[in-house]
Amino acid sequence: MTSIVSPALAVRRAGTVEYQTAWDEQRRLHAGVVEGSEPNTVLLLEHPSVYTAGKLTEPWERPFDGTPVVDVDRGGKITWHGPGQLVGYPIIELPVQRGGLADVVAHVRRTEQMLIDVCAELGVATTRIKGNNRSGVWVREDDRGPDRKVAAIGIRVARNVSLHGFALNCNPDMTWFDRIVPCGITDASVTSLSAELGREVTIDEVLPIVERHLPTLLAV
């Protein structure tokens, strides 16, 4: 299903899609946005269980049991995608700075803010954390545990159009993260909306909320 959430942004709910199939579709849309034949588009979907490793992934961060990993050309390190996790791939043209290059950091910050707003609407207080490997959206340390990431972000920009995107943990099996060092972070943890709220938070519940907040991704 494709819908228009703003005059400048189309959103497609794609259901469950194999990682390689989604990657092929990202590249197709990217080419279209670059040449002007496709609108700015966000793919919202789930993947069957898969580990993906960004360009900065170290060998010791990969699965300890030899589980296969898909190496991808985004920034960041290794993460897991799978059922219960809402993945968003914004294929959008970014504003150009002086010198003709897109402001990638600003795009990451807008993505973080969008996810912070989504979590707040659901009743989970989240924030950004400064530091290496700390992009994404976090629940701060409290009496329940250390800092923990509820949404990961990994971006690539080519010809001023973004690829890859974000992954928001709704109600996944969190044990998949036990086999890796998620995002290369050893001194923090990962969490889900369900774990934080103490109830089942499904993809179907979260999808319309994310869609309402997606215009935040567009620079004003």
TrEMBL record:
Location of this chain's protein in the cell: Cytoplasm
Site residues (Lowers pKa of active site Cys), renumbered to this chain: K149
Classification via CDD domains: LipB
Pathway(s) per entry: Protein modification; protein lipoylation via endogenous pathway; protein N(6)-(lipoyl)lysine from octanoyl-[acyl-carrier-protein]: step 1/2
Active site: C183 (acyl-thioester intermediate)
Catalytic activity: octanoyl-[ACP] + L-lysyl-[protein] = N(6)-octanoyl-L-lysyl-[protein] + holo-[ACP] + H(+)
Residues where substrate binds: R74, G75, G76, K77, I78, T79, W80, H81, A152, I153, G154, G165, F166, A167
One GO biological process term: protein lipoylation
Keywords per UniProt: Acyltransferase, Cytoplasm, Transferase
Domain BPL/LPL catalytic: 36-220
Superkingdom in the source lineage: Bacteria
GO cellular component, one term: cytoplasm
Molecular-function GO terms, alphabetical: lipoyl(octanoyl) transferase activity
Known EC number: 2.3.1.181
InterPro entries recorded: aa-tRNA-synth_II/BPL/LPL, BPL_LPL_catalytic, Octanoyltransferase, Octanoyltransferase_CS
Database matches in HAMAP family: LipB (MF_00013)
Function summary: Catalyzes the transfer of endogenously produced octanoic acid from octanoyl-acyl-carrier-protein onto the lipoyl domains of lipoate-dependent enzymes. Lipoyl-ACP can also act as a substrate although octanoyl-ACP is likely to be the physiological substrate.
Similarity-based family: Belongs to the LipB family.
Further comment: In the reaction, the free carboxyl group of octanoic acid is attached via an amide linkage to the epsilon-amino group of a specific lysine residue of lipoyl domains of lipoate-dependent enzymes.
This protein's name: Octanoyltransferase
Organism, as annotated: Catellatospora chokoriensis
Encoding gene per record: lipB
